[in-house]
Design goal:
single chain, 386 residues, alpha+beta, four-stranded antiparallel β-sheet, binds adenosine-5'-diphosphate, binds magnesium ion
Length: 386
């Protein structure tokens, strides 16, 4: 068994720098419970933090120098003030770290020089937001080491800016909000229009439930181009309907809106976004009422909408959802942008193993590469460990 992720970060720090870290900061990966492709339509999302975490062991160093080791490649990347003067000067994974330093400096903070060692249990590129976990762990370390005045609610924007402007990845505000602001036993209800958040009780443990996360390990097929196409389609539809964003089409105005659109594909895209926003609101209402078990059908309906209307699923993903439901999951859906990534299934905690086995068997039968899986409860957001 591999050592605990925090212990691995500390061991990496010691062997790389020959000294003890001043502290350790952790940030989780995240899964979106429901609300897919609603973010850029100014709508609602409902992510929760995973117990899988990225840990940064760190200490200050004199001058404007930043050195970072990651267990991932065993590589150490070093950069100084010149490299963080403007985006693009640090490439590869070091860009996520340099981007955080850059964004802090852009916001007027005096960022302390630092040595960092990173270890992580968040799988990379599976849609569980290892990128935001890395940014948030590094950001928390730098804020504390430098005694910077940056309240938690302002940190997601800054981490997002690192990823958008320095790394060059066009992500919304959900990932960084989730990994920084989530609370254990809760999901984070985020309004992507005004970025307001509310912590919604999501106490799976008390209900005898768990979420099984299945990593489809499906290759991301044309995901960037398809994402851009969906986004363009939504923006064009909002324009045709004369609203700022599809969030402004209410669920009870959907039929009218669809009647005003000529193109069948556009109608499907709009129907997904409008019904998905409503499913987020319905999920929040059920969770507030303590009816955790009852959200299952909403999750499954969300999946059907992504498969049939938004057309962003792939055979591996649909197979995982069907197998999980057949094996007794209360609900299941793809989570993340689509064309690969992960599926989450709401399960009775004592059925998690059986549901995972059923998915693995269905994959073998279809000749797909074996999926990964982990059973989770909603964990805390970014935090200092010691
Ligand atoms: P996701 O966020 O869904 O995992 P992304 O493509 O957004 O996928 O981010 C993955 C990238 O983030 C990796 O390719 C790597 O550059 C960087 N990254 C994430 N975690 C680490 C880590 N622990 N060490 C080094 N780089 C990391
Ligand atoms: Mg990411």
């Amino acid at each position: 068994m591999t050592a605990d992720v925090a212990a691995r970060a500390t061991a990496g720090f010691r062997s790389t720098y020959g000294e003890e870290p001043a502290g350790r900061w952790a940030a989780p990966g995240r899964a979106n419970l429901i609300g897919e492709h609603t973010d850029y339509n100014d709508g609602f999302v409902l992510p929760f933090a995973l117990p899988l975490r990225t840990v940064a062991a760190a200490a200050g160093q004199p001058g404007e120098r930043w050195t970072v080791w990651s267990e991932l490649s065993g590589e150490t990347v070093a950069f100084g003030a010149d490299e963080v003067a403007e985006p693009g000067r640090v490439a590869g994974w070091g860009a996520y770290v340099a981007g955080v330093v850059w964004a802090l400096r852009e916001a007027g903070h005096a960022v302390p020089g630092a040595r960092l060692a990173i270890a992580s249990d968040v799988p990379l590129g599976s849609g569980l937001s290892s990128s935001a976990a890395l940014e948030a762990a590094v950001l928390a370390a730098l804020v504390d080491l430098g005694g910077l005045e940056l309240p938690r609610e302002r940190q997601p924007r800054l981490a997002q800016r690192a990823e958008n402007a320095y790394v060059g990845a066009p992500t919304g505000i959900m990932d960084q909000s989730a990994v920084i602001r989530c609370r254990a036993g809760h999901a984070l209800f985020l309004d992507c229009r005004d970025e307001s958040v509310e912590h919604i009780p999501f106490d799976l443990d008390a209900a005898g439930l768990a979420v099984l996360v299945v990593d489809s390990r499906a290759p991301h097929r044309h995901a960037d181009g398809e994402y851009a196409a969906r986004r363009a389609s939504c923006e064009a539809a909002a324009g045709l309907l004369g609203v700022p964003a599809l969030r402004d089409v209410p669920a009870d105005g959907l039929a009218d809106a669809l009647a005003r659109l000529d193109d069948a594909e556009t109608r499907r895209r709009v129907r997904h976004v409008v019904t998905e926003d409503q499913r987020v609101l319905d999920t929040v209402a059920l969770l507030r009422a303590g009816k955790v078990r009852d959200i299952g059908p909403l999750l499954t309906a969300s999946h059907a909408s992504m498969r049939d209307d938004f057309e962003i699923t792939v055979p591996e993903i649909d197979t995982a959802v069907e197998a999980a439901l057949s094996a007794g999951a209360l609900g299941a859906r793809m989570t993340g942008g689509g064309f690969g990534g992960c599926v989450l299934a709401l399960v009775d905690a004592d059925r998690a193993g059986a549901v995972a086995d059923a998915v693995t068997a269905a994959y073998a039968e279809r000749g797909f590469a074996a999926p990964g899986h982990v059973t989770v409860l909603p964990g805390p957001g970014a935090t200092r460990l010691d």
